[in-house]
Amino acid sequence: MSYQTTYAVSGLYAITPDNRPMNQLLVETRAALEGGANLVQFRDKSSDQKQRLKTANALIALCAEFDKPLIINDDIQLAAAVGAAGVHLGQQDCSISEARSLLGDDAIIGATCHDSIELARQAKQQGASYLAFGRFFSSTTKPDAPPASTDILTEAKKLDLPIVAIGGITHLNAGQLLRHGINAIAVVEALYGAANIHSRATEFQQFFSKKPHLTLHT
Fold it and tell me: CA separation (Å) from 22 to 19, 88, 98, 170, 203?
């Protein structure tokens, strides 16, 4: 079965950092969107469900201003509750089929594949919308994540799904990954930790200015 959406996974994929006050997070995310971010992922590992719901709703409204999708990290119930565009799932989260059943055929469902083409193949078969590989560089967000080789990116292109690279990506090393044909770079600290988030987002997005978009499908 094929799943289509009006959004494309391409360019800068902004992932929110943990432990940010909501108002600060909204200001920073607005700067990222104004700078050219094409997708936003709300990543919050706290146990405060009420605050997570409030922040997700605020981010939904903000992303709607720019006609950009909000993806929820891990939590399909939260994604459904706020009407998010989709969810990103790790290997320890619920199944892609379960997420698809709850969120619908047009939802964006991303899958963490680490450095495994086999996990990527399984994710595609189960209905993933895009495949995320990494980490490619040292990461402050996930310092213990296993390293990935850029060879996996070349191999993954054969699966004909959008490819997202993640893990320690900065404006100084992103070009190394673009040469392997990726569609998007997912960034946390190098974006939200920048002195000027708007300018840094623009800098990241410029890497993709001449790259074609790959529309989501499975």
Answer: 9, 21, 29, 24, 25
Confidence of residue 217 (pLDDT cuts 50, 70, 90): very low
Give the C-alpha separation, 212 to 183, whole Å: 8
Residues 174-185 have pLDDT tens digits of: 999 998 989 999
Q: Please give the span between the terminal C-alpha atoms of the chain, in angstroms, as a whole number.
A: 7
How far is it, in rounded angstroms, from Cα 2 to Cα 72?
22
* Domain-wise residue ranges, the chain: 11-206
The answer to whether the CB of 39 falls within 8 A of the CB of 69 is yes
Beta-carbon contacts of residue 160 (< 8 Å; ≥ 6 apart): none
Residue 218 has pLDDT above 60, yes or no: no
For the chain, the residue count is: 218
pTM (2 decimals)?
A: 0.91
Task: Say yes or no: domain 11-206 is CATH 3.40.50.1370.
Answer: no
The label of the residue with tokens 């094409």 reads 38
Cα angle 162, 89, 196; round to 5 = 70
Report how far apart, in Å, the C-alpha atoms of 146 and of each of 54, 87, 150 are: 33, 22, 13
